Amino acid sequence: MRKIITLIIFICFIKSGFSQNSDIDSLSIELAFQNADTLKVNTSIKLIEKLYEINDFDRALKYIIESEKLSYTLDYKKGIAEITYYKSLIYAQKNDYINAIDGYTKSKDIFNQLKDTLGIAKVNNSIGLIEIKRGNYAKGLQYSLSAIKELEKRRLKNDLRLAYSNIAKAYYNIEDYDKSIEFYLKALQVQEQLNDKKGIDISNSRLAELYSMKKEFRKSIDYYEKVLANNPTNNDSIQSVVYPKLGGEYLQFNDYENANKYLEQGLNINRRINNKDGLLTALINLGNLNLQQNKLVIAEAQLLEAGNIAEDINNKIELLRHYKLMKTLDSVRNRFDKAFVWQRKYYDLKSSLTNNGSVDDETIERSELDLSLNFDQKSSEQNNITENKETSKTKKDFDRLQLIFYALLAALAIVSTFLILIYLKRNSSVKYAQELEEKNIKIELQNEAFQEQTKHLENVNNVKDKLFSIISHDLKDSLSSINSFIDLLKDGSLTRAEFDNLIPELSENANNASLLLFNLLNWSKSQMQSLKPNPSLFDVQEVFEDKVKLVEQRLESKGIELVDHSLRDFAYADRSMIEIVIQNLLANALKFSKKGDKITISNHISNGHCIISVADTGIGISRQNIEKLFKNNSFTTMGTNNEKGTGLGLSICKELVELNSGKIWVESAVNVGSTFYVQLPKSKPVTA
């Protein structure tokens, strides 16, 4: 029966391992057959996440490098942010905090651009973990707290487990013990849901320590016993830590039987595994126990051994407790000269620790209180007995020592007052420096805002100058030409037949003026940053039909053939903006085509996008001029019939297409023709 159970457990373990590897293998195969698009990046991110979970960091980094290149090629912001985040997680696991923080910052900037609240929360939580590990508790606490709300809303238990533990640890280190208990309890709840055995042990141990600090010893005992219950088998690493502390908690209740049981077990385990920290705690508490039970010889041996260990491992707090107990032991034995020596060592070490800031007064007071809670009454009774037995000589010696002790206390008080005055003065200087720094930062921010506003006003002024310049030249010329024709007709200088012959030219001027004004209005609107797309699904073929009707007369007058290969297909964009783009592209094709040329309009589907094209067999564009297109530099050339332009049409087209998550480009050869392409999404783009 025992063999069968063992076999079942082994099969379950193998199955679990295969299941995890199967997921990774499946994703690897899926990735290999995918096209180089955003879907491939998303699959790679899932694979990287799986590899990170099993700590296969080297393999994960290989996929990160490849996916990062593809994401930058596709300009896929979401992919770049996620990959940078996982790369930073691996840096943090390898303790490369500089690269980790740099990566987190870049990832967070992109998540902010995408308004991805979950991504921001995960990054903040990870930064908080690093800062807390580095000892920057206040800073780490700020980041982790900012992440909590979003993580709780999404119920991301793994992230919450880390966040709660980090916040609890930070509160513990800044001595806000009530808040620390609150978040360790939250962490414990999530850890139990995830069956995180190691995390449960850590949280229970921390809660036991915290309740002990708050003098709630019964709760402390309960949580230490939960740690033992969570590890039913003999686990030396757990028991060596818990037993000495649990024995110390029972000692606070004068429960000598349980205290002795756990302290002796802890002592034996720590001797066996040579764990000096646990051995020190067990010896100090056993010394205190035997001292309270008046077993002075045993207590002295245990306390002297504890003192040697405390000095060896440089544990100042336990050394303080050692000095305090040795002073009490020698006082009970009427060895007041030795008691005074221990007292002096105690105060020297205490002053050293508080002055250099390595330990605060509250920590020291806790260690003192732990020793005095159960010993005060016994010490008082013993002193009464001792006083009755003292000789007059001993009393005089004690009085002399007491006088020296008070003198030392007075000197200590004077020195302490002096140090406090120095501290207050230094604190005032630091506060003044901080206030000055804050004012300087505020002035810098105001200057930056002023410079940004000045730059914006200069840009607006440039737009205005450019707009009036074009209106005063190009638009004025077209309108003046039309006006001249009308004046000649009105004055009778032209016959009806002559005017009919001039109608095509008059129509061309009117069309040029209309298109020029159309482009100027759209260009100025975009420059003033007021264009906002209102996307919807629309039929591309319908837009082509509407815009072709507007240019039919011009096509006929120039002798140009229009070939319509458009299909009924839908794009997801702002229809009015795309109408502007198609109208400009048709106008350009007409402008640079000669009699007998062809203009071909078409649309098709490619890689999940709608591709629109306007092709002509006109004069084409040189390679040098192609580089000048789509820029805000008013580049323009004369058409085949000397048609003029503002040079703004294509820059407007580019801005409108990009506002609708699309792309625009051109392919052209001189004397062969040009084809302009516009790529638009077929559905609402996925944004985080």
Automatic annotation (TrEMBL):
Keyword Phosphoprotein annotated: yes
GO BP: osmosensory signaling via phosphorelay pathway
Enzyme class: transferase
Cited SMART domains: HATPase_c, TPR
Stored Pfam families: HATPase_c, TPR_12
Keyword Phosphoprotein: yes
Highest rank taxon of the organism: Bacteria
Domain Histidine kinase: 470-684
Ranges for the TPR repeats: 161-194, 201-234, 240-273
Signal sequence annotation: none
GO molecular function per UniProt: ATP binding; phosphorelay response regulator activity; phosphorelay sensor kinase activity; protein kinase activator activity
Protein name according to UniProt: histidine kinase
Catalytic activity: ATP + protein L-histidine = ADP + protein N-phospho-L-histidine
Record keywords: ATP-binding, Kinase, Membrane, Nucleotide-binding, Phosphoprotein, TPR repeat, Transferase, Transmembrane, Transmembrane helix, Two-component regulatory system
InterPro entries: BphY/WalK/GraS-like, HATPase_C_sf, HATPase_dom, His_kinase_dom, HisK_dim/P_dom, HisK_dim/P_sf, Sig_transdc_His_kin-like_C, TPR-like_helical_dom_sf
PROSITE patterns: HIS_KIN, TPR
Membrane-crossing residue ranges in chain numbering: 403-424
EC number(s) stated in the UniProt entry for this protein: 2.7.13.3
Gene3D superfamilies: 1.10.287.130, Histidine kinase-like ATPase, C-terminal domain, Tetratricopeptide repeat domain
Naturally occurring in which organism (per UniProt): Confluentibacter flavum
